[in-house]
Amino acid sequence: MFFVYLIFFDDHNLIKRFRTKQEIRQLEQEYKYYIDEIETDKAKINQLNNDSIFLEKFARERYYMKKDNEDVFILK
Q1: Helix (H) or strand (E) holding 44
Q2: Which sign does the torsion angle of CA 26, 27, 29, 33 carry?
Q3: Per the domain annotation, does 24 fall within a domain?
Q4: Mean pLDDT, to the nearest integer, of 5-34?
Q5: Cβ-proximal residues to 55 (8 Å cutoff; 6+ apart), any chain
Q6: What is the tens place of the pLDDT at every residue in 21-61?
Q7: Please, is 58 exposed, middle or buried when counting C-beta atoms within 10 Å of its C-beta (0-12, 13-18, 19+)?
Q8: Which of 21, 28, 33, 57 would suit a FRET pair with 1, their CA atoms being 20 to 30 Å apart?
Q9: Domain containing residue 23
């Protein structure tokens, strides 16, 4: 009887513990994903700050920037 109470009716029952552990695993995976994204973004920022050629390429591709004496044609 006591075990049935613990499994189903207790505030810290096994079902809640299982769901909580699943949620913790999912949150840990999301945490790792975002840490990797932060590292990638930091590397890109560093490259943008230090490499003028990369900065120019990024500005042209992402924001369609151009020099004054150029014409840009966008092909998709």
Answers
A1: helix 14-50
A2: positive
A3: yes
A4: 86
A5: 48
A6: 999 999 999 999 999 999 999 999 999 999 999 999 999 88
A7: middle
A8: 21
A9: 2-46
DSSP three-state, residue 13: coil
Report yes or no on whether pTM surpasses 0.90.
no
CB 6 within 8 A of CB 13: yes
For residue 64 the two structure tokens come to 């369609």
More confident residue, 9 or 18: 18
Q: Is 57 within the bounds of a domain?
A: no
Number of structural domains (the chain) is: 1
Which positions ≥6 away from 8 have C-beta within 8 Å? 15
Q: Residue 37: its pLDDT value, please?
A: 99
